[in-house]
Specification:
The protein is α/β, with parallel strands linked by helices and 377 residues long. It has 13 helices and twelve strands. It starts with 10 loop residues before the first helix and ends in a 12-residue tail after the last helix.
Amino acid sequence: MASSLLSRTLLGHRLIRFSSSLPQNPLIFSNLFNREFRVQAESYHTTYKASGQHSRLMASAAIETRSNFSTQSLSTNDPVVSVDWLHANLREPDLKVLDASWYMPDEQRNPIQEYQQVAHIPGALFFDVDGISDRTTKLPHMLPSEEGFAVAVSALGIHNKDGLVVYDGKGIFSAARVWWMFRVFGHDRVWVLDGGLPRWRSSGYDVESSASSDAILKASAASEAIEKVYRGQTAGPLTFQTKFQPHLVWTLDQVRRNIEEKTHQHIDARSKPRFDGAAPEPRKGIRSGHVPGSKCIPFPQMLDASQTLLPAEELKKRFNEEGISLERPVLTSCGTGVTACILALGLHRLGKTDVPVYDGSWTEWGAESDTPVDTSS
C-alpha cells in the first residue's frame, strides 16, 4: 500500500514536482453563515441559525466569547471532532492541525502536491505518513523508533502541550493511522476530523490552495530529521517527548501466538475478497487469504456515506453481526497497518481504548513462508 510518490526521497525535493493534470484554480468555499452552524464542546452542543447581518454578528460574538472551547477541555473519550468544532477553534494557540493524506498507489494521487497546490485547511501542517516511518525495514510506513518520531514531530513544531486534529483528503482514511501513531507514543490529546477535508469543504469552510514557506520548511525538516536519526546523527532540538505504549502495537510473533492462545479477537479491515483469498493482493509476492481465526470487517463499515464515523449504536451492530464481543480484547490488522486504525477508531468510540494494531499486517504476514494462511474459497 505504499505510494511510490512518497518514498524515501527528501520531502523538500518532492514538493516542487507538480502534476500538470492537477486543477490550477480550485474552488474556495467561504459560505459560512448561510447554513446551520453547530459548535461542539465536551459536555454540550450549542446551535446557531444565522442569516443576515444581525445573526452574523451574533454567531461571531458567540464564537469569540466562548470560555471553555479549547483542546484542554475537549474529551478524549470520543476520537473525532466535527468540522464545525474545528472551525470554531482553528485559531486556538494550543491546537495544531495535521494534513495526513495518503492514497493507494492505484489512485494516482499525490498528497504532497494536493496539500501544496490544491487545498488544505488553513494553517494545517503536512504529516508524511510514508516519510515519518521506520527506515530499517522494507515494509511500508512502519512505526518509527521513539527517537525518530520525536525528532520528526518536533521539526513540525509540535509540543506535548498541543492538542492535535488530524484529517485526510478522503474523509476518514489515513488520518486514523496518524491518530494511532500519536497514541502509541503517549500523546492522547489527538482527534480525527470527522469527514475530513471533503466534509470541511462541503460545509462551506475556506481552504488554502498554496502552502506557506514555513509549512514547507517544517515538512522538509521533519523528513530530514528522521533520516538523521536512522543514520546515527544528532537531530534536534526536541519539543516533543515520547512515552511508548507497547500494548497498542503488535508484532508478527504476537499475532502468531494469538492463533493458539486466542487472548484477542482478531479483526481484519481488508475487503472480503482479499480476506477470503478470492482476490489477489496488490503487492507482488504476497499470498492471498487471512490469519487463521481472524474475522473480516472491512473498514468502510465503520463509516457512513459521508465518510464520517458511525454513531455508537450502529458501530455496535457492525461488530455484533460478525460475532465480535465488546467484552473481550480485540486486535486489528489490514494490508499495511493503515485501515486497521479505522477499526481501532470505531472501537475507541465504543470505549475500547486499548486496541492494538498489527503494524506489519498482511503485507508482512503474507510474505513470510512459514506463517499459516487460511482462505474461504
